[in-house]
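Teaching assistant here, posting this on the class forum so everyone can see the example we discussed in section. The complex has two components, and the goal was to see what a joint structure prediction looks like when all of them are supplied at once.
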Amino acid sequence: MGSLVGTGASFPFPLISKWIPAVDQAYGINITYSPTGSSAGIAGITGRTVDFGASDAPLSPDQITACKGCVVVPWGLAGTSIPYNIPGINGRLRLTGPVLANIYLGVITNWNAAAIRAINPGRNLPDLKITPVYRSDGSGTTYNFTDYLSAVSPAWKSKVGVGTTVNYPTGIGARGSSGVAGVLKSTAGALTYVDTAYSLSNKFTFAAIRNATGTFTLPGLRNVKAAVSTLPKKITSLKQIKIVDPPKSAGRQAYPISTFTYVIAATSSGSKAADLRKFIYWAVTRGQAFGPPLLFQPMPTSVQAFAFREIKKIQQ
Amino acid sequence: MTSTPYEPTVPEVDLRRRGIRLGDVIFKGIAVVAAVAATALLFLIAYKIFDLAWPAIKEFGLSFIWTEAWNPVTDDYGALAFIYGTVVTSLIALVLATPLSIAIALFLTEMAPRRLAAPIATMVELLAAIPSVVLGLWGILVFGPWVADNLEPWLESVLGFIPVFSGEPSQAGILPAALVLTIMIVPITSAICRELFMRVPRELKDGALALGSTRWEAIRAVVFTYTAPGIAAAVLLGLGRAFGEAIAVNQTIGNQNAIPTSWFEPGNSLGSKIAAEYVGATSVLQAGSILYLAAILMVISLGANVAAQFIVVRFERARRAV
């Protein structure tokens, strides 16, 4: 009866919760996981206070150095939704990357702006101030969102950039997914970014985002699957699995704001190494089947193969 | 004839007869150790904070204090926006909480019927028992929207000519955070004021009334003069609490890393930034900068405390001179 303790991103938490009883049944490993945020997960495994950490954001160079021999293994794949609170709107809102960037840059400030009306014909957009809401704590979802905005907006890339915390020029910051959800629910005109499973369980309406082919897509399973369809067959480094703003060749279904989520473990994990390898291997193979009901798309085989090679590095 | 020389006898030293008890020695030893430990801890903490902040102090120097910037992507940091947030929210809370606390304490000691005084006092003190994270949640979910829908438009209509009171109402900002801080300071300050007012000797108040002063004149002349140093200390204690409050402010201040033109708008404070970002620091310089913020917050807090003690001493001297 082994036991593993982990902490980190809240993004994969619904999926990990389904894995825990199944792994207990399969191997007798007792796992506890607390969703404290990607940054706390990275800090936890760096300080070796937990056996594994979970993050939606890859580690920065300083964090890799500080972690002293950690492997980063992708184990989940899903989309980041863009929920909004526009009272009385008749139908789903559509947004494009450049418009989203301009909203968060403070260039577009009202829902009835010409740029928004142009992509939403037939929608009764009210004269309502837009309140962009973002995460004030270090968040992998922020990383995914800003990664997307940097890819589609040169202005965003130069003014703000990518990161788990960035200098948002305007809007309200709230703590955790529940914080942004609270502000979204109580502010008419608010817009935010949060993982799809969270949006669904809180019954938020989220926007359809335009991809490279010009189609407006939602973060459904086949949309996320299309987003990873252009990955190379042989993957040797995490840099090759950037999937934001997929190219036209990914197809009309691709959802532009998708992300992998990662587990981080130490290469010298001592007595926990065998259990960690069992758990992560299971998660990357049989665990993927638990994903679809929660809108986590099973990872493509090329990423699985990369994961297997990384898992082998977890030794005593 | 030989006489025996006089030799004074030295009595055997009996510790108990001389009045030194072992218990006293041990007690004194423990007390000295505790006092030294507390002082040493203060210096150790201060040293460690500055030591951890050193990468940022080396990089930015003193100009960090008056630079308004915070960009983890370009590794460009400055504390001005946060110092503004901490100082402004705490001062607003102070200005609002002080008269409120004094009024509550006066009501409880001078005006309330004895049976009502105790339950009301207990309930005011229970406000202090609400954990700050709970108060912050209430702030962002209930109080913030109310402030944005009701208080801020009213303030704009009455005081809109002052720039800080004009602008778009927002449910997260300097003003909601300052109001939550007020709610946190009032219980402490009013409890201390109440204790102080209760200790004013009755004869002084009776004497003033006998000389023909009104209730309010008696209170002003007797109670306030007598308790002035204590009130100053209570107010500064509340200010210290306001400076250090991180979580509740983090939830209600809106987390914008800039100095807002209007107090309705989001801003950020030192405590809130440290709580939000330390765990997520992606570079050594970012972690150092956050600790630099901690060092600045410590200096501000300690400064307020030293000022408090100075004011108390001056008040004491003025009072004794009367």
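For the discussion questions: DSSP finds eleven helices and two strands in chain B. Chain B has a mean pLDDT of 88. Think about how each of these relates to the inputs above.
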